[in-house]
Amino acid sequence: MIVTTVTIHVKKENVNDFIKASIENHRNSIKEPGNLRFDILQSIENETQFTYYEAYLNEEAVKQHKDTSHYKLWKETVEPWMEIPRTGKPHRVIAPADAASWK
Amino acid sequence: MIVTTVTIHVKKENVNDFIKASIENHRNSIKEPGNLRFDILQSIENETQFTYYEAYLNEEAVKQHKDTSHYKLWKETVEPWMEIPRTGKPHRVIAPADAASWK
Known about the structure:
Number of strands of chain A: 4
Largest sheet of chain A: 4 strands, antiparallel
Strand order of the largest sheet of chain A: 2-3-1-4
Oligomer: homodimer
Strand content of chain A: 25-35%
Structural class of chain A: alpha+beta
Largest interface: A-B, 28 and 28 residues
Number of helices of chain A: 3
CATH topology of chain A: Alpha-Beta Plaits
Shape of chain A: globular
Distance between the termini of chain A: 12 Å
């Protein structure tokens, strides 16, 4: 399993639109066969900062996500709303170690 | 719901012990009634850097976690293994919005 945490700084005036686009991205991404979780979080201390928590079965599933039409639409829509480019950090899973605990 | 992401930099010589202590902390924490998830991740790009993904029902459940004996034991055991003090960042949940999708 691979979990990517993505940190996104959004322009203040685009926060509400970004939340709507994120919910739509969540709804589509969790339907991908290799997806385990796709959580959308908003920092409590700084409401313009968001974290995506994207858990996938393997590298291939991560790659397939980036080929979906919903990912491409999301990227095109929200990139102009970002204050700075987003950063993604990939992780291996220590616990829970079984994929069934993720889906 | 509240999700805290905790970033922990571990001294190289303590990485294996830290992983063992983290698995034990995970096993105990997911049994807490207010806990939804307690994922342990290791950065792929830097194997001494870990992320805890701690999802709780509410503030009260977060507070109760810090009162458990397993939290206190974990803290006492692993703090000397940290390269720098850990940092925790609290978030509100945008999606999935229903608690049932978290447990």
